[in-house]
Design a protein that fits this description.
single chain, four-stranded antiparallel β-sheet, alpha+beta, 2 domains, transmembrane helix
């Protein structure tokens, strides 16, 4: 939106600048330049006033914040990354844990819009050492809930 206001400003400024440069050498040019600059100032107040008073109103800011919150809630990648921390806590040797990429076969993350709150079902796997030092692949499933912007909660974590 700010880019549109800047573009409108430039569309207004350039012709006035050209007009003023022509009038600079004309007779009675100073008065015409002053009038053009006053008109430009008035015309610039319209889009900038709209931007600051309407676009940035509390209602519009709240609406944009809700849209951003909804978009953040649907971020399946973050749900997958946050699930890895909860899985690490349950492993015998968390330092050896290697997780796949979210695009790897065998990894599925789904946003659950029918659930209350902001929840994702994560089905994935982790390669980590067991008690005997051998690396094994463990499949896991968990329901991840986004509580706030940087707080996630794991529900029903199952590691097989």
């Amino acid at each position: 939106m700010i880019l549109a206001v800047i573009a409108i400003s430039l569309v207004l400024i350039v012709p006035v600048f050209l007009y003023c440069s022509v009038q600079a050498h004309a007779r009675d040019g100073e008065r015409k330049i002053a009038n053009a600059l006053v008109a430009l100032l008035f015309l610039l107040c319209i889009p900038w006033g709209w931007y600051f008073l309407s676009y940035n109103s509390a209602e519009n800011i709240n609406k944009r914040n809700l849209q951003a919150e909804r978009a953040a809630c649907m971020n399946s990648t973050m749900a997958f990354v946050m699930s890895q921390g909860f899985v690490r806590q349950r492993l015998k040797s968390p330092g050896t844990a290697e997780f796949p990429m979210i695009t790897s076969p065998g990894v599925r993350v789904e946003y659950l819009p029918q659930e209350a709150g902001c929840k994702h079902a994560v089905l994935a796997y982790v390669d980590a050492q067991n008690s005997f030092g051998g690396t094994v692949r463990n499949r896991y499933s968990v329901i991840m809930e986004r509580v706030s912007s940087d707080v996630w909660r794991a529900h029903d974590l199952k590691i097989q």
